[in-house]
Design goal:
- By secondary structure, the protein is mostly helical.
- The protein contains 10 helices and no strands.
- Helix content is 71%, strand content 0%.
- It is elongated, with a radius of gyration of 20 Å.
């Protein structure tokens, strides 16, 4: 089940990555138009240089993506990085020395995905923490980094600390609310709070505002707990 959660998050992260880049370059296009209208030669030239640098960073990012294969192995177990993935890690690390938001956060997220899939969870956690604390990162990406930071420590880290992080992600308007609530239910089970876990899972299984994957897993856990509940 954990592998299903990570795969679902990975797919949504990739979609959000493209949306974030689109927003970024739409804004850059607007800046360049304003520069032309103002007609300030020095300012316009500086804006052009910034645009060129950002375009170079974007090109480097997508070149790294060609070498990065972040899909989980069929059995959900970590797998050693191949030569292309190692190259991607090096390309992304180099990019992060000059990249600006939001590309910096996206690069760190991609590097963290490569690391965690190779079994290097410690370094991935560091990168997710950096993205989560980055005030310049897109809020959806920042929240996703916080969620992944929790998910990959759900069985090991201090439950009170994890719950404090999840409390920032489980609000009605939060983009990863369903997955955050699912993590809270898993923490309930870890701590032996089965009744509270059932209540959370029952609410999740009937919540049409969360993803189908979350509802399906909530139903599966409820059946495992022996509630006999069958949600939509």
């Amino acid at each position: 089940m954990a592998d299903d959660i990570f795969r679902e998050v990975d797919e949504e992260m990739r979609a959000e990555r493209l949306r974030a880049l689109a927003r970024r370059y739409m804004m850059l296009a607007g800046v360049i138009v304003v520069a032309i209208c103002i007609g300030g030669g020095a300012w316009q030239y500086n804006a052009w240089r910034v645009h060129q640098a950002d375009q170079a960073s974007a090109d480097a990012y997508f070149a790294a993506l060609k070498n990065a294969t972040t899909a989980h192995s069929p059995d959900g177990q970590p797998a050693p990085l191949n030569a292309q993935q190692k190259t991607a890690l090096e390309q992304l690390a180099t990019l992060e020395k000059t990249a600006r938001p939001p590309l910096l956060a996206l690069s760190r997220m991609e590097r963290a995905a490569l690391l965690v899939n190779s079994g290097d969870t410690a370094r991935a956690l560091t990168l997710w923490a950096q993205v989560n604390a980055d005030q310049g990162a897109d809020p959806t990406i920042s929240s996703l980094a916080g969620l992944l930071w929790v998910q990959h420590q759900i069985d090991t880290a201090d439950p009170a600390m994890l719950r404090s992080r999840l409390a920032l992600l489980d609000g009605a308007q939060q983009p990863w609310r369903g997955l955050a609530l699912e993590c809270e239910a898993l923490l309930d089970l870890r701590q032996g709070h089965d009744d509270e876990a059932r209540r959370r899972l029952e609410r999740l299984s009937m919540d049409m505002n969360v993803s189908d994957g979350v509802r399906t897993r909530a139903d599966g856990l409820l059946q495992t707990l022996g509630t006999g509940h069958a949600g939509g």
